[in-house]
Amino acid sequence: MNPAGDFIERHLNLHMVGLIDIRKPLPGSERLHRHRFWQINLACAGEIGLWSQHTRQRFCAGDLLVVPPGAPHYLDYSRCGVYRGLTFKFDLTADHTPPDDEFLLVRGDAASRRLIAAVTELCRGFLPQALETPNREFNVPAGGMGHLPLEDMLWGVLRYYYLARAQHRSGGEIFFRLRELIARRNGAPVTVAELAAEAGYSTGHLRVLVRERTGEPTKTFIDKERIAIIRNHLKYTSLNMSELAARLGFCHLLYFNKFFRKYAGLSPLAYRKRCWQEE
Amino acid sequence: MNPAGDFIERHLNLHMVGLIDIRKPLPGSERLHRHRFWQINLACAGEIGLWSQHTRQRFCAGDLLVVPPGAPHYLDYSRCGVYRGLTFKFDLTADHTPPDDEFLLVRGDAASRRLIAAVTELCRGFLPQALETPNREFNVPAGGMGHLPLEDMLWGVLRYYYLARAQHRSGGEIFFRLRELIARRNGAPVTVAELAAEAGYSTGHLRVLVRERTGEPTKTFIDKERIAIIRNHLKYTSLNMSELAARLGFCHLLYFNKFFRKYAGLSPLAYRKRCWQEE
After folding, report:
1. Size of interface A-B (CB pairs under 8 A)
2. ipTM
3. Where would you tag: which of A76, A80, B46, B110 has the fewest CB atoms within 10 A of its CB?
4. In 10 A of CB A133, how many CB atoms?
């Protein structure tokens, strides 16, 4: 019916957005509670108390909190000085079993601070009226469109922090990290010793890890990752071969050709031609 | 296998991110071309030329460009003074037929500017190395996790601007807008005359529009929208009935009860109890 049909499907229905802005301690009215919907809190400035069933922690600027359905929690404004934060209450449209019935507190780092800044920008751009009156929750129009980018962003927050945690537990995170360290070079060479140093392992430990996981020497693992990166450069950019070889750290086009052919089975130029012909 | 399995599924695979930062005109090397992947360009500052098959337009700070697969386009840096912008190249994981084989140029407004700021924050937080060297494209690690929030955000951009356009064509946008205008009051009353003025219609025209679409008087349409908002306040907040009635613009709790009961068939308190009991 709708030409954009496939694009409309939502992952989450955002119901309420609140900007909390407190300049002095508020007498406590809430207490430990749980609810059936999901909640995300982002701490923009200051700090408050955060109670779980057993402990009280600090919830500080840059931190983020994911409260899955059923998780007991209580944000305590009664002992804070200054606090500014965003609250989002939503349901998921598909049935995702939360990995835990406890909330997830993510401590602030450079990435989470940027994320909070990004979400704040989106609120200002797409739901400005939600921020007009602090300390009141704003009802998000059901079925509206204006907040779609914000919903997608929140889905990203949920996905990323839950996924990251799950990967961390399953041990897969180490491999993601190695791949990202190699990717940071953007295709330029990286030695086993450099990779080990950046990942915080001894070269010996790294070699064992990689051998266990891939059955191959670390050098081969690195080379194959580089080849994947180079394929992307060939497919998605229009740099000519000499420029590309130079950017990838090859001192001569011949070495670039040889390296690529060894793993990919054809020359870089032939690979690009094949990609482009397909189009 | 993975406890976060359902959360991992991706909508798009981001391959390349580039920060373009130009201080003086660059001699033209590109020309009109098309490719099989998707591309999004965000103009952060300055302006450049943008060619389609037939015309040249300006692509200015705050604008955004969606280039679906197959759409001829050409970003012309040869006549610009200063320009700074972000480029994203990606594939969709599911098969979405683009509504058009032409690119979509969205002119800058307050929302698009906030969106561009948000995407920039996400790049800085989750893919900082992509911004380190301007005018080179950075390969995003395939299967990596660090850029998931950015991918979700781009998906939101694509969805929102494609969806908005499609809705606009189908005429449904007017109704979304009316609902959003009502929602801005956060449950407080709005008269037919106010709604008409905010939407830019005469009250007569608004009445005809609403009657055609819903078969009901505009007052009933507004009231039902307000009831949906009030339901959310009852379900997702813990405000007591007097506070809530006051915030919703009722001068007495009795009127609030009567209004809610008329459409919902039970008292606000009974509705809240039912919501909370279910949990």
Report:
1. 241
2. 0.85
3. B110
4. 14
